[in-house]
Amino acid sequence: MTLRCLYVDFNSFFASVEQQDRPELRGQPVGVVPVQSMTTCCIAASIEAKEHGIRTGTLVSEAKGQCADIALIEARPERYIEVHHRLMNAIQDCIPHGKAASIDEVPCWLIGRERQRDNAIEIAHRIKRRIAEDFDWIKCSIGIAPNQFLAKTASDMQKPDGLTVLEPTDLPHKLHALELRDLCGIGPSMERRLHAAGIDSVEKLCDANRERLRLAWGSVEGERYWMQLRGHHFARPSAQRGSIGHSHVLGPELRHFEGARSVLFKLLAKAAMRLRARDQDGQGPFLTRGMAIRLRFVGLDTRFERDLQFAPIDDTPTLLHLLGEQLAQLQRHIATKRWDPRRHPPLSVAVTLVGLEERGHVTGELMAARQRDRDMSGVVDRINRKYGNNSVYFGAMHCALDKDAAPMRIPFQHVPETGLERDVRPRNGFRRATGSDTSHELYLLRERQFKVLAENTHRERAQRHRPSGAGGWSAAPHAHIASLQASLF
């Protein structure tokens, strides 16, 4: 057993990028937030902010209470992605790296003489020096160990700007001082299961045999964890993507039915565009067999939940039609007074496409009308890739776009492709900057043109017989609902 993995973890990445770009923030507590609102939370905290107990997920109101002079900076995802790629190139100058584990974590694999302790340490120092040539404020902690799991654990053991080596002779006693939650793969739920199994410390976890861990995990993952703790290296099989989705917490100006509907349409259109694209792992394009819709409300524990199942599809118009049918049910609850949006306005929305299948594995489209929708979706994709996302968009999304809602975000284990997820220049921002209503006038013109086109299309379709269930959906409002939880809705 030998050293195999060198793991680079950038410290307080989002906040460090802000401090890199704005020297006046250096040495000051900084919190990065998705929007400037007291009701949101920090998505990143600088090293100085962490000294006050502020972490990712800390509410802004709590952060202000813990550190009154904290600087709250609105996130700039596009800039973080740009810096990420520059840092990846800097690491590449020192050692070939694999796929980034996230936007701020990069595993690198050691080969040959690189696996010797002194040589691995020298590579780590070389990476730090190379990064410092481009960024004098962005630091990284590096862990070196026999496998990726232990290398990631080592990178967290000395922060900021640390370097930790875990050799086979260091295992497992060097891990005993850690808390269970310090180990990758152990969250609140898993920690409770381990406590129920009588394992309440890392030392007891390391002492447990593989059968006991298999029982605690309830699967073979327990045995894999036992092996990882002891430095064993094994390659995990690549898993096919199972879902594509987006969620968004609504701003106060969008906490009404029309605002929630518009944001959901935007999120679904973005997910559908990703569905039709080949991802960074070389997977796709996909077809989807299902859709999960979720809405949460202020002051209500009950959620609006719908889970749809249908024949494999990938075109945006059909997906939006299915979503619209379900939201029409919610709108009827306003008329019947089962839901009062003024008392319990929508708080957050989410939509996820599930049951993904590679497009080439499914029989092609037979219905001419459905093929037209697929062709149109492809044309819209190409226009938006060339001129910027949502240069062309569906009218129901206008409210969300006008309020700059649901912009590009960076998930924990995925580096977004800006061409698919970055919006063109915000429309309301354009009007503020120019003092002109040109963009609004253009929107009204396009709206009138679309209405004429829609009326003509509607008349043409009314003259044709539409086969029941064509394209995987029918007029029956509940035909595709796999499960409807007993709820207010």
From TrEMBL:
<dbReference type="InterPro" id="IPR001126">
    <property type="entry name" value="UmuC"/>
</dbReference>
<dbReference type="InterPro" id="IPR043128">
    <property type="entry name" value="Rev_trsase/Diguanyl_cyclase"/>
</dbReference>
<dbReference type="InterPro" id="IPR050116">
    <property type="entry name" value="DNA_polymerase-Y"/>
</dbReference>
<feature type="domain" description="UmuC">
    <location>
        <begin position="5"/>
        <end position="187"/>
    </location>
</feature>
<dbReference type="Pfam" id="PF11798">
    <property type="entry name" value="IMS_HHH"/>
</dbReference>
<dbReference type="GO" id="GO:0005829">
    <property type="term" value="C:cytosol"/>
</dbReference>
<dbReference type="InterPro" id="IPR043502">
    <property type="entry name" value="DNA/RNA_pol_sf"/>
</dbReference>
<dbReference type="Pfam" id="PF00817">
    <property type="entry name" value="IMS"/>
</dbReference>
<dbReference type="GO" id="GO:0042276">
    <property type="term" value="P:error-prone translesion synthesis"/>
</dbReference>
<feature type="region of interest" description="Disordered">
    <location>
        <begin position="457"/>
        <end position="476"/>
    </location>
</feature>
<protein>
    <submittedName>
        <fullName>DNA polymerase</fullName>
    </submittedName>
</protein>
<dbReference type="GO" id="GO:0003684">
    <property type="term" value="F:damaged DNA binding"/>
</dbReference>
<dbReference type="GO" id="GO:0006260">
    <property type="term" value="P:DNA replication"/>
</dbReference>
<dbReference type="InterPro" id="IPR024728">
    <property type="entry name" value="PolY_HhH_motif"/>
</dbReference>
<dbReference type="GO" id="GO:0009432">
    <property type="term" value="P:SOS response"/>
</dbReference>
<dbReference type="GO" id="GO:0003887">
    <property type="term" value="F:DNA-directed DNA polymerase activity"/>
</dbReference>
<dbReference type="GO" id="GO:0006281">
    <property type="term" value="P:DNA repair"/>
</dbReference>
<dbReference type="Pfam" id="PF11799">
    <property type="entry name" value="IMS_C"/>
</dbReference>
<keyword id="KW-0235">DNA replication</keyword>
<comment type="similarity">
    <text>Belongs to the DNA polymerase type-Y family.</text>
</comment>
<dbReference type="InterPro" id="IPR017961">
    <property type="entry name" value="DNA_pol_Y-fam_little_finger"/>
</dbReference>
